[in-house]
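In the current project phase, our protein records have gained a structure token line. A sample record follows, to show the layout:
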Amino acid sequence: MQDTGHRRAPLRGRHTRVDDGVVRVGPLLGVPAVLCELGCEPRTVLDSAGVKPAQFEDADTEISYVAASRLLERCVAATGCQHFGLLVGQRAGPSSLGIAGFMLRSAADVSTALRGLVQHLDLHDQGGVPTLLTRGGVTLLGYAIHQSGAEATDQIYDLSITVACNIMRGLCGQSWNPTEVLFARRQPLDLEPYRRFFRAPLHFNADQSAVAFPARWLDHKNPCADPLLHHYLEKEATALHALRSDNIIGDLRGLLRKSLLAHKCTVTDVARQLCIHERTLNRKFHNEGTSFRHELDDIRYEMARQLLADSAMPIARIATTLNYADVSAFSRAFKRWAGITPALWRARRAASP
């Protein structure tokens, strides 16, 4: 999809939406313990991030995604540990993901478990989405951030991909290993903690964060399968979705993030995934004072900044990842968004303290 370079005027009556989604603290419950192990007083670090210790007393407590990301940033700053997210993720099992995590445990097989995770994780996390792609006999189970303004995205990806590996080991046995692990971030100085945990080749500066494994594992039977419990949990998750307000814009951001990874992000592609006609989709956007193209630009800009800031990926590869025809089309679009070229934006970001 090539950007034409035309600067579209803002739509009249452009809506104002709450951009900060929420996330359950379940996967973050290990933060205080890891801080203690690294010689830091948890209350001091939590206070600096605007997070209260009482919020860690219940896994179901919801906090803003941006606040959670700020907490990870402050943890790294306080401890100097560049793999802090990895350490927290090691303590988080499937149960930390709420109802979506419990559904993993009761599913009949790996395929059913992971498809349920993709469908229902938004009940736990509204700032990022799980991704599940199979190509050429290889499956990628990953995570993609779409929340605007998230900090410490490298730590979020470390934490999330560690949890993804824990999920697969919970389903397939603790001896299970991925064939490779991808990170959409720069390579840290100390790789040993990653090698010890993942027991697989590591690839940094990738276009996505994911664990890769042979697709045949999707057929692996879950020894803990409980069909009656799974059916009950599925009904509960469906009911919880029905209680949520209709948020076409919020839902679309996650869908666009996944669609860009699959290089299927036209309005027709997205309408098909939402099971509605594209005219209906466009009408919904019009009623919200926005457009499909505007929202696609928003999520591309967010992805571009993440990849420019957190990885050493060449700009030409970033352009391909964002589904631009060439690097010049991407550069023109980025200059419309940021006022400067992606190369200059990256250089200024690197030079800032």
In short: Confidence is low (pLDDT under 50) at residues 1-18. The radius of gyration is 20 Å.
